[in-house]
Amino acid sequence: MNAKSATLNPEAARQRASVTLKAVALQAGVSTGVASTVLSGGKNNIRVTSETERRVVDAARLLGYRARRTAVVLEEAPSHPEAPAPGKEETAARLALTVGVLPSFNPDPLDTYAHDPWESDIPAGLELALGSGKARVATHYFNRGQPGRLPVRLAEAVAHLLSLRVDALVLIDISSSAQEIGKSVPLLTATGLPFVIISANALAAPVANVYYDSITAGYQAATHLMGQGYSDLCFLAPLRAPWVDERITGALEALRCGPSPSSSTLRVFPEEEDRALLPAFEDRVGRWDHRASGFEAGMRLLAREKRPPRALIAANDATAAGFIAAASSQGFHLGADFAVVGFDDSPEARAHNLTTLRPPRERMGREAALLLLQLAEGKKDAARQVLLNSHLMVRSSTPRFPSD
Length: 404
Hints:
disordered N terminus; globular; 434 Repressor (Amino-terminal Domain); Rossmann fold; 404 residues; seven-stranded parallel sheet; 3 domains; 41% helix; alpha/beta
C-alpha cells in the first residue's frame, strides 16, 4: 500500500479523532476504566481476561479509536500524604490568582462535616496545591436545594465570588449526576473565567473535568473478593444514588469479565423492585445516616436468610459498619463468618480493619488546581479531563475463603 492510499481524507480523520474512550467501552461492553487499562497497556493495575482485552482492542479498531493527548488517567497512590513535586510547586508559584471554590455541600457547625472525608479532603487537596504558590482561595458553599438545608443556589454563589473579583472557578460536586452537573456549565461559561469541575463521573460537556470512576471501583471490589476465593457475592445498597448504581455496574462487570464468569454470582439487596421504593440520596433531609441504613438493611437480610452472605460489598464504609453491627448482634463475626469490602477508606474502615477502595479525594483537588493553573496560563494543550481511580486497601475483613 502506498502512502497516498493509506492517507485518510479530512472528514474520515475528523470522525476517527472524535471517537472517545467511552464509545470504545460501550462498544466492548466494559467500563471506561477497563477500556483504559487495555489501551494503556495495563497502567491502571486492573486485571482483565484475554477475552475482555480482545473485545476492547476489536472495538477500538472497529471505531478507529486514537488515544488523545487531552485524556489523562491516573492511579491513586496509597493513603499516606505525599509532598508536592517540585515541578508542580513551580507551576503554582508562577501565577497570582484568586480562585473561587464552589463546593456543593453546606457545612453545618452542629453536624459532623469535619468527619466526612469527601467534604474535607477534596477542598484540602485543592487549597494545598494552590497555596504552594501565590494563589489565594475564596470559598462559597452552595447546594441544589436539598430539603432541610438552607438552599444557596449556584447562581448566588457564583455572583458572590464574582463580586470578590476572583480570577478562576472550581466547582466541586461529587453527589449529583453528570446530567445535573452539566446544567451548571452554561452559567460557569458565561463568567468568562477559566474553570474546572470536580465530579464523581465524566461530564458530556467539553469542559475541564477531574472525576472519579465509581464503576472501576466496583470492579476492583468484586475482583478482589473473587481473587480471595469467594464466588457468591452480595451487594448491600440500602439507598438509590448514581454512584451506588455505578459501583454495582462495575461489580457485575467484574463477574462477566472474570476467569470463570459462569461460577460466580452477584445479587443486590434490597432487590430491584424493593430498591425502587428506597429514598433517593439527592432527596435526603440533612445528612444521610449510612450506618443506620446499613444496620437496618442488614437486619432485614439476616432475618430472611438466617446468616450473612459469605462475601459482601457495601455501598460505602459507613453502610458496611452498619451491616457489621447488625451481624455482630446476631452472633456472627467479621472475617470468620463473612467478608466485607467497602468504599471511601473512612475512619470507620480503619476501626473495623475493613478492606476498602480509597477514592483519590486529595488527588482530585490537587489535579484540579494544576489543570486550572494551566488553563489560566492559556496552555492550549492542557488535559481537558483527568480520570482518577481508587486504591485498594486490603485489611483483615477479606481473608481467603476457607478451602474446607
